[in-house]
Amino acid sequence: MLTLFAAETEEVINPILPEIPEMFWGGLMFALLYVLMRYVLLPPVERTMEERDQALRADWDAAKAAEAKVAGADAELADALAPAKAEAAATIEKARVEAEAERDQIISGAQAEIDAMRQMATSQIEAARAEAMGGVGSQVAELTAQATSKVIDRPVSATDAQGIVNRIMSERS
Amino acid sequence: MSISIFAAEAEGGGLVFPPIGNIVEWPEYLFEGTFAGFNKISLIAVLSMAIPTIMFLAASRNKIPSGLQNIVEGSVEFIDNQVILPAIGPDGFKFRPLLISIFFFVFIGNIFEVIPTFQMPMNARMATPAILGILVLFVFVTVGVKAQGLGGYLKSSAGPSGLPKPMYLLVTPIEYLSTFIVRPFSLAVRLFANMLAGHILLVTFGVLCITLWQTNALALVLPFSFGMLVALTGFEIMVSFLQGFVFALLAAVYIGGALHPHH
Amino acid sequence: MSAISTAIELAVEATPAEQKNAAAASSAGFAYGLAAIGPGIGIGYLVGQSVQAMARQPEAAGQVQTTMFLGIAFVEALALIGFVVFILLKFA
What we know:
The structure holds three protein chains of three kinds.
Chain A: H1 2-11, H2 20-152, H3 158-172
Helix pairs in contact in A: 2-3
Chain B: H1 2-10, H2 20-24, H3 40-58, H4 68-87, H5 96-111, H6 127-156, H7 165-214, H8 222-259
Chain C: H1 2-13, H2 16-56, H3 61-91
Helix pairs in contact in C: 2-3
C-alpha cells in the first residue's frame, strides 16, 4: 500500500501548482520588460505623442487666433465703411429729393401747358360749333320757309321760320 | 459503421485523449533540474518580453503615425483611456509603464495559444499568473501605504467607515482576507484557468479532428469539428486579448482603490 | 440503472485507489457543472443590464463597458474556480 501511494505521488502530475523554473523565468522577464518599458521604451513614445499633442494644440490655437483676427478685421472694415455709407446714403437722399422736386416742377409746368391748350381747343370747338349751328339754323329756316310757303301757298317770312327753327333746335339739342 | 470503428480501434486509431501532463508540461531544454530550467514556457516568457520591446523600438517616431507606430501608440492610448482614466483617474499616469507591461506580457503570453508550433499559452501554467498576482499585491499595498500611511491604509481597508464598533470584529477579518489574499489569488486563478480551459478546449477539438481524419467512417462529421476548431481559435484570440485587458484593468482598480480610499 | 449496478459491482471489486479515482472523476464533472450555473445566470443578467444602460445612454457607453468587464471578471472567477476544482479532482 505504501509503495503504491509512493509510486502514485511520483507519477501524479499536478497541473496547477506553479513550478520554480517557470516562476523564475516569468518573473525575470516581466521585471526586465517593466524596467525597459519604464526607462527605455515608453518615454520616446510618450514624448512623440506629447509633441504631437502640443503641435496640434498650437495649430488649434493659431487657427483660433487667425479666426479672431479675421473677425477683428471684419469689424474694422465695417467701422471704416460706416461714414462712407452714411455719406452715400445722404447723397442719394439729396439727389432723390432734388429729382423729385424737378419732376414735380416739370409735371406741373406740363400740366399747365396742357390745361391752356385744352382750354384753347375747347373754346375753338365751341366757336366752330356755334358757327356751324348758326349756319345750319339759317339754312334750315330758309328751307323750311320755302317748303312751308309751298305747302300753304302763302309766303312765310324767313324770320318767323328762323324763330321756330331756333326754338326746336334748342329743344332737341 | 460500428465495425469499422472497432477495426480502427483495434489498429490503435480510437479517440485517445492525451493525459493532462502531456499538454501542459514541457521538457527542459537548458539548465535541466536547476532553479532556472529553461523549457517552452520560459521561451514564451522571453518572447513575451522581447516582442513588445522590439515593437516599441522599431516603431517610428513620426508626427503622422503609420504602421507599427499606430499599433504602439494605439495600445498606449487604449491603456490610457480604457484602464487608467476610468480605474484610477488623472493621477494614475505614473502607473502607465507598469500597466502597459502587464497588458503586453499577459496578452502576448496568451496569444501563443493559437500560434502554430507553439500552441501553448504561457499563462496556462500557474507560474506567471502567480508571480503577476503577487506583484500586483505588492504594488497596491505599497501604493496604499505611501498614500495613506501604514495605519491609515490598514484602517481604510478594514471595512467601510461608520459601522458600529462590534461589527468590525466580524467585518475586518473578511475584508483583510478579501483584500490581501483573495485579490491576488483570484487575479492569478482567473488568468490561469481561462487560458488552461481554452487550451484544453483547443486540444480536445484538435484531437477530435485528427481522430476523425484517421477513421474514414466518421469523416462526414469532420467539417463540423474542424469548423468548430477554427471558431474556437478565433474565440481564444479574443479571450487572450480580453484577459490581458482585464488583468491590467483589475490591477488598476486595486491600485486606484489604494490611492483613493473612499472612491 | 444497469449502468449504476455495473458501476457498483466494479466498485466492489476495485482497489481503494481505483475507487477514489472513480469518485473523483464523477464528482469532478458535478463540480464544474454546478459551478457554471450561477456565473452563467450572473453574466447574462450583467451583460443584459449593461446593454440596456448603453442603449439608454449611448454617451456613457465607454464607462458602462469598462464596468461591465470588471463585473464579468469578478463573476467569472467563480466559474473558473469551479474549473480549477475540476482539474484538481480529476488530475491531482
